Amino acid sequence: MFHISTLNQIKIAYIGGGSQGWARSLMSDLSIDERMSGTVALYDLDFEAAQKNEVIGNYSGDGRWRYEAVSTLKRALSGADIVIISILPGSLDDMEIDVHLPERCGIYQSVGDTVGPGGIIRGLRAAPMFAEIARAIRDYAPESWVINYTNPMSVCTRVLYKVFPGIKAIGCCHEVFGTQKLLAEMVTERLGVEVLRREDIRVNVLGINHFTWITEASYRHIDLLPIFHEFSAHYGESGYELQGESWRDSVFRSAHRVAFDLFETYGAIPAAGDRHLAEFLHGPYLKQPGAWKFHLTSVSFRKQDRDEKRKETERLIVQKRGAAGKASGEEGVNIIAALLGLGEFVTNVNVPNQGQVSNLPLQAIVETNALITRNSVHPIFSGALPKGVEMLAARHVSNQEAVAEAGLTKDRALAFQAFRNDPLVTIDRSDAERLFHDMLAMHQMM
């Protein structure tokens, strides 16, 4: 059974421990949280990157956490209480193919890591990697709790459960947090009441990752949906920018015009950023991203960002400095604390559907709120998606199941069926076959 002898004996296994993003956020959050201490085993195929994070991690905080780069999954997982997965399935060169090769067929993607041609190929590439991870968890840490941050979230988490049905895994995503911030600013503007924390906006969340929806929202006793209807109507054409976050200044920001447009159609609040929402639909958004006030995130930008982070890594090591000792805004540490019995916590997670989304298939990976307590994650019943949204989401649920299965079995025919079934693949069959074949060939897959 799940057990730690004391809170000073926690072991976290970090798969993708050379990460310069998610891993550094964890280091920052652990360094300022005084409830826990222990060891973090950093495993990465790039062992040198994990070694550098070991140095930075051990400079972080007051020494309550010891970081160690390890060379095998077995060493990382043995004795682990918590497993965190944040890997890049492949390389940024692989992602460049995923995102930009379809452009020759007129298919543009704003992210390319969840759905669309890029998300599907990435899922096929990730499936055997996650199968290996699932088997290792089964063999070396079967009672651990697993937190996955890797995209495509639904496919990766589904593979974990298909390979090791007894796994205790959740997928975590911060997209809902941005919508809570939007609602908080709406309350301030429309009601003149300052919302101190975005968590004070209570939401009923349901859907699938990056295509998640809010059917109920409140602040204290106030129903926010009627207010959002007015807010959306007012800003639908011009867009709304969060305080200090102009959509022009960052490829990751938007003015929420896509979300407003979808709300006006379906009557529920989309709880993801416009870049993600746009990829789930065949519509006008990706044809004119500038008009809709969001960006297509190029992989050249990601490579530039990676290079800057590498330089920062070297600076931290030379200066003998740790990760920034401030809250990242992520909830991983609060989730870990709740699983270890240090209070209860409610947040949105991705887990197999046990009926918490009543009109999506059972066992599909869905995103809803969950109550997290000691050694337990209880999905909260969230009801049914609006019928129009259900029709859109169901198509992607079927595709994600097919991608997980095809990636595990190397079923090329099934993989192509999922590829062609994606709403962004509007080209004829022969062009779709050629694109699919070329993408697989360039990745040397299947």
UniProtKB/TrEMBL annotation:
One of its GO terms (biological process) is carbohydrate metabolic process. Keywords: Carbohydrate metabolism, Cobalt, Glycosidase, Hydrolase, Iron, Manganese, Metal-binding, NAD, Nickel. GO terms for molecular function: hydrolase activity, hydrolyzing O-glycosyl compounds; metal ion binding; oxidoreductase activity, acting on the CH-OH group of donors, NAD or NADP as acceptor. Residues 205-425 form the Glycosyl hydrolase family 4 C-terminal domain. The record marks 113 as: Increases basicity of active site Tyr. InterPro entries: GH4_Enzyme_sf, GlycHydrolase_4_CS, Glyco_hydro_4, Glyco_hydro_4_C, Lactate_DH/Glyco_Ohase_4_C, NAD(P)-bd_dom_sf. Transmembrane segments: none annotated. SUPFAM superfamilies: LDH C-terminal domain-like (SSF56327), NAD(P)-binding Rossmann-fold domains (SSF51735). Mn(2+) binds at residues 173, 210. Binds 1 NAD(+) per subunit. Substrate binds at residue 151. It holds the Pfam family Glyco_hydro_4C. The keyword Ion transport does not apply. The keyword Iron applies. Its cofactor is NAD(+); Mn(2+). Belongs to the glycosyl hydrolase 4 family. This is Glucosidase LplD. The lineage of its organism: Bacteria, Bacillati, Bacillota, Bacilli, Bacillales.
